[in-house]
Amino acid sequence: MSTPTTDAMASDFVLPYDLEAHEPPEARGLARDGVRLLVSRGGVGETRGSTEGTRGKALETRGSPEEPPTDNREPRGNNGETRTDTREPHGSNGDVAGTRESAEDTHGKARETRGRGGEISHRTFADLPSLLEPGDLLVVNNSATLPAAVRLDRLAVHFSTEREDGTWLVELRRRMRTASEPYPGGAGGEWLPLPGGATLRLLERETPRLWRARLDREVPAYLHRYGVPIRYSYVDEDWPLADYQTVFGVRPGSAEMPSAGRPFTTGLVTELVSRGIGMAPITLHTGVASPEKNEPPYPEWFEVPETTARQVELARESGSRVIAVGTTVVRALETAALATGRVRAARGWTSHIVTPSAGVRAVNGLITGLHEPRSSHLLMLSAIAGGELLSRSYAEALREGYLWHEFGDVHLILS
Predict the structure, then answer these.
(1) Cβ atoms within 10 A of the Cβ of 91, count?
(2) Lowest mean pLDDT among 161-165, 286-290, 298-302
(3) 3-state secondary structure of 11
(4) Is 356 exposed, middle or buried (0-12, 13-18, 19+ CB in 10 A)?
(5) Element holding 351 (H helix, E strand)
(6) Which whole number is the average pLDDT over 152-164?
(7) Is residue 126 a contact partner of residue 107, using CB atoms and an 8 Å limit?
(8) Of 380, 377, 387, which Cα lies nearest the Cα of 365?
């Protein structure tokens, strides 16, 4: 039997069960902003050669990782328990080679590691205000999550994206004991009876996985009555829609939660603003995740309002950082950015993918979750952090037992 790889950046890496967040942090005895925060400070991307780090030393960059295949989640065990968060670092006795004590905060002592490619420290999300500077701008996604899964006896329909003609992209999934898996069946023109007497007509395949379909009634209202939040196999049980919302979500439209914004609370936002850290919204309605391997990306609707574009430009002109809260925000801002990096107001559809070769123009930092290598998000993270620092950061996350997925821990990347 081959030994499972322990390199979280490797394409054959399989995330251990105990590093998956199986429930919201509140069920583990934590506040929303009590999740752990991995902080990576370093260069601005692979394609720019050596750059100046935050401490004035040139940071060496190296070749970018290969593009990882897309996510294909497999069902895992279900014990239905609500657990207290008493995790020990995964595969470690709690010691991290090369660590040293840094600033002390109310949650204990933060630990920091430094290397040629930048520095890494371990904090909690509530420490975020102390890690940013007055004038920094956080750009957030104000899309709210829909209860986008409608369950039948043997199938589930995941409503993904509304099109301009009133049709929706939907994914058909076969229900299993603990979750669901992609269902390859269906035919153009087929009618599916849904709860409440509704009928869904499949029109044509948009991608190998997604159908363009039309419901015989208004979809958001129908979902709020008959739908539930989309749940994948690593989440052991259903949780209320409120657990899938962020404090910023005011425009319903996302099939899945823009999860980077979940740890923010009204109190934390107040503290950030009181310290002179700005906040500005964009909208990007997320579609369903778990794209099949080699499936081309499909467009998602976004809007960068004029007021946000101006705030981004003011921050850039004053030398302050623009920090995206989530990969969705990076996609929206980079779509709206000109070649010079200037961000303009924009709205429409984007299928933009950020890669190390293309780099980023509009952002200096990112708040995001931890991603498996079978996700194109790692390309974006490499473009912002650089491959070397990102690889070291993920090795630290594994060593320290950070939790992956939407209810897990968080990663702050600062260039």
Answers:
(1) 12
(2) 286-290
(3) coil
(4) buried
(5) none
(6) 95
(7) yes
(8) 380
